[in-house]
Specification:
By secondary structure, the chain is an alpha/beta fold. The protein has a single domain, classed as TIM Barrel (Alpha-Beta Barrel). Helices cover 40% and strands 16% of the residues. The protein contains eight helices and eight strands; from the N terminus they run αβαβαβαβαβαβαβαβ. The chain has an eight-stranded parallel sheet. β3, α4 and β4 form a beta-alpha-beta unit. The two termini are 15 Å apart. The relative contact order is 0.16. The structure holds pyridoxal-5'-phosphate. The site of pyridoxal-5'-phosphate has 14 residues, from β8.
Length: 236
């Protein structure tokens, strides 16, 4: 069997497995599949695999480094809806804007200000997530939870970005159930942000859950799950 056929068969099997698990997590928590947006994270795979993902109906794709994403973004352009999910250096904002529909990793004022300036110059407003380091792990990016409200106040006037919601990454846990407090914490922060009416409009989205822990994230209210290895795989 040729390589592409094999890759496709393996992908079909992963899709069946992941979609069944998403649906089961939705049923357990009284939610529907339509409430969950899958961001297929293509950072580990080649543009041929991106082709396959698009053909299978996964149009929202995530990348975490501009240098690695460039070739894929240029090849597929508007066929995909690209989300920038990784740590974003301020000097890369100019490359990312206009090409990515959404940025999941806004975690400091200097970055928010730069997005605002560059977006205004393009006449756009970019949907963004505020990344919060709920777990407090030192290796993780994101604002400490106790700084979220003040941060939201500081960026509320920046018209070049529009806050869609909050994003977090849970630590890798051998037992995914252990991530639950992190995801629950992010949902509570979102609700608190809305209750205080700090931003111009309520935020609805929660970008949380990856290959290892997406089911728990769905049960805790995730609206976007970012799936790499479990869905698109890690090679070819
Ligand atoms: C790589 C990455 C993912 C996907 O990781 P998997 O564990 O392979 O699903 C999700 N979110 C971010 C921010 C990432 O960098």
């Amino acid at each position: 069997m040729d390589e592409r056929k094999l890759a496709e068969q393996q992908f079909d099997a992963r899709i069946a497995d992941v979609e069944a698990r998403i649906s089961a997590a939705c049923s357990r928590s009284g939610r529907t599949r339509e409430e969950i947006q899958v961001v297929a994270v293509t950072k580990y795979v080649s543009s041929d695999m991106v082709r396959l993902a698009l053909d299978k109906g996964y149009k929202v794709l995530g990348e975490n480094r501009w240098q690695d994403a460039k070739e894929k973004v240029e090849r597929f352009g508007d066929e995909a809806v690209w989300h920038f999910i990784g740590h974003l250096q301020t000097n890369k904002v100019k490359d990312v804007l206009g090409r990515f529909a959404c940025i999941h990793s806004v975690d400091r004022i200097s970055l928010a200000t730069e997005i605002h300036k560059k977006a205004e110059a393009l006449g756009i407003s970019v949907p963004c997530f505020i990344q919060v380091n709920v777990s407090g792990e030192e290796s993780k990016y994101g604002l400490p939870p106790e700084q979220l409200m003040e941060f939201a106040e500081q960026i509320r006037g920046l018209q070049g970005l529009s806050v869609a919601g909050l994003m977090t990454m849970a630590p890798y846990e051998a037992e995914p159930e252990s991530t639950r407090p992190v995801f629950r914490g992010l949902r509570q922060l979102r609700d608190e942000l809305n209750a205080k009416s700090i931003l111009d409009k309520p935020v609805t989205e929660l970008s949380m859950g990856m290959s290892n822990d997406f089911e728990v994230a769905i049960e805790e209210g995730a609206t976007m799950i970012r799936l790499g290895s479990v869905l698109v795989g890690t090679s070819s």
